[in-house]
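Exercise: predict the structure of this protein bound to adenosine-5'-triphosphate.
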Amino acid sequence: MSLRRIVDLLRTGQPDESVTIQGWVRTKRELKEFAFVEVNDGSSMAGLQVVLNQDLPDYAEMVKMLNTGASIEVTGVLVPSPGKGQRIELQANTVKVYGEADPETYPLQKKRHSFEFLRTIGHLRSRTNTLGAVFRVRNACATAIHNFFQERGFLWVHTPVITASDCEGAGELFTVTTLDLKKVPLTGEKAIDFSQDFFGKPAYLTVSGQLEAEIMAMAFTNVYTFGPTFRAENSNTSRHLAEFWMVEPEMAFCDLEGNMDLAEAFLKYVFSYVLKHCPEDMEFFNQRIDNSVLATADNIINNEFARISYTEAISLLEKTDRTFEFPVSWGLDLQSEHERYLAEEHFKKPVIVTDYPAQIKAFYMRMNDDGKTVRAMDILAPKIGEIVGGSQREERLDALERRIDELGMPKEELWWYLDLRRFGTVPHAGFGLGFERLVQFMTGMTNIRDVIPFPRAPLSADF
Ligand code: ATP
Ligand code: MN
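Solution:
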């Protein structure tokens, strides 16, 4: 028995080869003297057509069991397919049914189900064409990310999921506690007494691995994190999850230019890799989900990104006769209408905007000599809007302390972050990319809950 994946047979299988496949029945067609069954094993969008001749033992009973969703193993011989749509098919010699799927009750039928409905059957939805394609593309994206950084000598570092620092200020935090919620210990001032909690202080699920990545970059020069992050944002949007994955490279001896160069090369690499490794899936998205998906990918891969400062971006936006819902003035945090105007209409390609006003960016970004702007960079892409946000970090101890004081942040808790500026500090920079947003952009899927196998969102943590 030569057990093969269907994707390999479709690509390289030759007539007269004896093979065995395993998978789930997608469709069945019964004719007078034989039956066709399409079998899918998740290795590709297309399944393999299996032909069952009526002279097979127990033919009638067998065919009765081969309903959509049934799991089977087929051994047979590859033959050229006379039918349209496939090069080869499998002439079955023996068929083994592992598990039947009752057509009366199996929730996935041939018709097209809505994504909302599919979310209610998260244990089965990965067997559909669209979700199958999404998770293959997701896998290719993840592989591309690791390949890109590993080829360049970056160390993959694992930053903690549980953190006692809430200094990132990126959003609402999930508290991690073992306190008995029915009788929470209180201090004299009736505050929760976290000294009795597991860590002896409040702890949270991380919202970003950046600060820890900076620690590791100060030892390994170039590192990246790629792991889950958590935000208890009670926003039911199509772009927010409570649990999502983030990619965060951090480079020592690197300034904003180096950061932008790396981010641009990174996006081009990941898009090219996915087009190369998942061509059928990407074609499917372009045909069935969003007909601009391939053009967007092409645009990212083949154009040098434009680069302008925030101040230049504001004056471009002020000059156009376009009216925006949010009026434009220096100091404004760019809204997605502005970002899309710049990328889609003005430049018609990805644009990197740099040097944002300090007041709309995080405390750790490096202050420019003007004392007003920081070395931040956001990459805006047509159809997509912001896809990457990054910065050169403040590596000067005095400047960082001044900023922390201005913002009234707790300096004591950041002692180790400040220490990195005390001992062997270097210019360094990095960026963050929301992994699910990347998969959304790549596939054209409108809801972020459909690009992660098990989405966590307000009131939704089933499966
Ligand atoms: P947004 O304005 O969209 O809420 P943000 O400014 O909060 O994003 P950052 O704090 O810069 O985002 O986080 C880095 C990246 O993580 C974002 O660019 C985005 O791709 C992704 N991201 C942020 N929040 C979420 C979320 N709740 N679900 C999925 N991805 C997210
Ligand atoms: Mn947010």
